[in-house]
Structure formats: C-alpha cells, structure tokens
Amino acid sequence: MIRLWIGLFIAFAIYTCMVYYYCDKSQKTEISPSSNALVGWNIWQNKNCQSCHQIYGLGGYMGPDLTNLASDTTKNDLYISSFIKYGTAKMPNFNLSDSEIVKLVSFLKWVDKSGKNRVSKEKVTWTGNYKLDN
Amino acid sequence: MKSNIRIYLISALGLLLSTLFFGLLATWAFLYPEVYNKFLPFYQLRPFHVSAALFWIITGATASILFYKNETVAKGIKSSALLETGFIVIWLSTIAAIFICYGLKIFGGREYWEFPPILCLPLLISWILLMFSFYVPLFKNTGKKPMYIWMWATGILFFLITFVEQNLWQIAWFRASYLKEITVQWKSNGAMVGAWNQMIYGTSLYLMVKISGDETIAKGKTAFFFYMLGLTNLMFNWGHHIYNVPTASWIRDTSYVISMTEWVFLIRMIQSFKKTLEQRAKLRHLLTYRFIIAAEFWVFMNLLLTLSISVPAINLYTHGTHITVAHAMGATIGINSMLLLASFTYMLKIDNLKGRVSKFLSFSYWVSQFSLGCFWIALIVAGFIKGYRTVENSKLNFQEIMEPVLKVMKVFSYAGVFLVISIASIVIVYLYNAIKLKQYQTQIEI
Ligand code: HEM
Prior knowledge:
B: mainly alpha, 80% helix, binds protoporphyrin IX containing FE
C-alpha cells in the first residue's frame, strides 16, 4: 500500500513540475506583463473586481467576463476607462485616480493577448474534446 | 468533551450561520445592486459568504478530526493540548481578522481567499501546529491503520501542499505569465477541494463504522481502491476549471480522462443501492445516519452534473455560468455540509434528544433537502440560459443575456430563504446543545 502511495505521489510531483514549466508554452508573444500591467493586476485584486467579473470565466457572476474586452472593436479605451471611472447603476464607482485606471486598462490589454475566452463549438472533435491555439 | 474542542465546535457552527446569512444578503445584492451598492455591495458580500463557507468546511472538518483523534490515532497516547489550543487560537483569530478586513474593504488576495495575503502566514503556522498534533501520535501508534485514518492524514497533508501552492502567485516568476498564474491558481484551488473531501469522507467512513458497528468497511482492498481513486482525482482532475484557457492541451486531456474515472463511483453507488436501502431500514432513526444518506443522494446528483461538465464540449456552454455555482454549492452544501452536520450530530449526541426537539429537527431536515433541490435546479436553469444565449446568440450584449437569468435568480432567492431558515434552525439547536453540554459536564465534575 505504502509503495503504491509513494508511486502516485512521485507522479503528482513530476506532473506538478511539468505544469509549472510548460503550461504556457503555447503562447507565442507578449507573455510577460509590463510594469503598468503588473500594478494594474494588483489594483484588480485590491479593489476585488474579480468578485463581480470573470477572466476566462473564473470569478463572480454579477458582471460580464472581461478577458477579451480590450480587443472588442466596438469598445475603445475611452469607453473602458469611463466605465471604470464612473461606474454605473450596477457597478460601483471606486473613485480611482486616472493613473490607476490607465494601469487597470493595461492589465486588461495584457490579459486579452493571452488568448480567447470563448471556445467556438466548431473546435469540438468526436471525443468531446477540443484543442486550442492562440 | 475537552473545552478547547467544544469552543472550536461552537465557532464552526457560528461560521455556518454566517455563511447562510451572508449568502442570502449576497443574493439580494446580486439582484438589487442599486440598493445594496450604497451600503453593502456584492463585492464585499461575496467574499464574506465564500470565505465563511470555506472556513466552515475546513473548521468543521478539523473539529471532527480533533474530536475523533482521541478515540483513534491518539488513543492511549498523551497528546499535547498546547498544540491543539495553539492551532485553534491562531486559526480562529486569523479568520476574525479576515472578516474585519472585508468589513473595511481591504482585499488583495485571489478568488475565494480575497484577504491581504499576509494573513496566510498565521493560517500556515496554525496548520503546522495541527499537523504536529495529528502526526506525532499517528507515528507513535504502530500497527495497521483503518482507511479513515489514511484519509485524515492525506487530507491534512494535501491541505498544506495546496495552501502553499495557492500562494505561489506572490513569487514574481509565477506572475510573469498570465496563463501560468491562472493555471497554478486553479490547480491548487481544485486540489484543495480534494484535500478537504479526504478529511470529510474519512470522517463519514468513521461515523459509519461507529453507528453500524461494522469495522470491515474501513479495511481491505475495496476501501483502499476507492481511497486511491479519490486521491488520483485530487491530484490530476483540476483541469476542468480551466478547459477554455489556452494552456498546454495535455492538461485538458489528462483532466478529461481522469474525470471519467468518476463513473466508477457512480456505478458503485447504483450497485450498492439495495444494500443501502436495507441499511437505511435499520439506522433510519438516527439523524447522524440521515445526514449521511442525504449526502449520498447529493453525491449522486452532483456526480451526474460533474460528469457532464467535465466533457469539454459541454463545458464550453456551462463554464462561466451559474452551473459552476450549482456545482460548487451543490457539493459544498449537499455533500460537505451534510456530512459535517452528521458528524456534529454525533459529537453533540443529538440522537439522544427525544420528543418535540427531535421532531422539529426532522422537519427542518426535510425542508432543507427540498429547498436545496429547488435552489440547485434554479442555478442550473439560470446557468443553462446564460450559456445558451452566450454561445448561440453572440450578438446579444451582457444586459440582454442576463435579463431572463435574473428572473430565475429570483426563484433561487426564494428557495434560499427556506434553505437558510431550515439549516439555521438545525444549527441553533446544535449550538444550544453544545453550550448546555458544558453545564452538564461541570455538574458531574462537582
Ligand atoms: C452551507 C451553506 C453554503 C455553502 C457551503 C455555500 C458555498 C458557496 C460557494 C463555495 C460559492 C462559490 C461558488 C463559485 O464561485 O462557483 C458560493 C457562492 C454563492 N452563494 Fe453560497 N453557499 C451556501 C449557502 C448559500 C445560501 C443559503 C445562499 C442564498 C440564499 C447562497 C448564495 C450564494 C451566492 C449569491 C453566491 C455567488 C454566486 C455568484 O457569483 O453569482 N449560498 N456559495
């Protein structure tokens, strides 16, 4: 019993290292965030935007998913910034400074480059699985 | 009962009450943000609710282990009360500090652990104390161990591993790529659920041994096989959280393959259905057993849901909708909380209560099961509507997509009211008994 357990644990440890090293190798460009994006990421967490918004479908469900907002051609930077600056009836106003908003926007732009949130149903194969490339 | 553990049990029940209370408020804040944004917005209530839920589950699980430890692992061995008390004091005061931060709108963590990450340090220290208090007697106590002890030991160890992994985002290397950060985050979150399941399923196995008097269910090859299957799922089946994230495709493939082993659990449940019915006839009078059976029912229902959303082709519709919430709350309420309530029923000797109180508990039990059913189905319907409208109708904007979803969420909130009242009534009876137990003990001591 112990030997089987240790075997499984070693497999887990190897798998874990593989995940840490190779999980993002499919992404070709702009993997690293700019310093603005990193600060924006911290603001995202400190203001808890994630409790209402999802990125890649993960987070709270009150607001929309923001993964690919930056590449939505119907919404420009000004639109995004004024949304964050003033809020709406449903989204609170966080009284953020303009420079904080710039950083949040660069975080969202960086996230957008990492891939697409929606998987189109055409990608599904007969196994019920799909492959993604970005 | 030792007084440190009694206080810990009472705190766990307090956390369950808070979970219910904040859950209801969060639902209203979700439905009526115009009102709630002024004083208690959703972005405060969701963390209050979700963190209270996680801490209820982990506190309830460790309370059970600490309680049963003295009759199992540490039987006949003098264990250090200092370690236990140290764990309890640091753990509970950190939770209090976390709630104060939420109250003051101080956040900074990641999903589910939305408090400033510095508070993870005392949590880690207290967990290490708990590990010492569990493993030292475990290793002193030689001899073959029943499966529930393996499960407790595994759960405690993997909580540590996943908790540390949960915090790796604070190291710059992990933050240098969004895909990596999000993958590691959900690897640890997913596996942590497996860790507390080990602790809780171990407890329910122990309870079954106790109330049925049948030691063999915790021994032998079958018990070991299901333990290993659970452990394999803990280690490799977290990928369904991030199917849609464009990480390496073998992560998706591994998770898909491993998740299909859950059919074995399902088939096993169907096979042993007749035996379960016979057993039910014998043990039905015990509330402890009834909570375990409720959990079995919810395991079955949640397996059906999990098996579906683990297929990437289906997940593409359900991901990012309330079906995920149905999966999360279906399991944490239907399975984890029911098993923990079974354990609390046993520890607080609730089955000895007779007459009106016992009838009241029975009634509340049934109300809670029915309202949980409506609650769960409402979430699935809400999720289905959102998923369908998003995938099939990509031109709709967010407001348009959500319009019918919000209507279903109103039904959800009505079911939630009944769920809160019924579970809270049960918890209040338990709290009363936990407090009375102390008076009873002091009387005897005098
Ligand atoms: C023992 C009781 C409960 C437990 C353990 C529990 C657990 C959870 C968990 C783990 C989540 C996170 C789900 C996710 O991120 O996918 C959640 C979310 C939530 N829960 Fe509960 N819950 C409980 C009771 C309730 C009740 C009674 C209500 C309402 C009346 C409620 C309302 C909510 C709401 C509104 C959310 C947020 C969903 C969103 O983001 O849209 N919960 N709960």
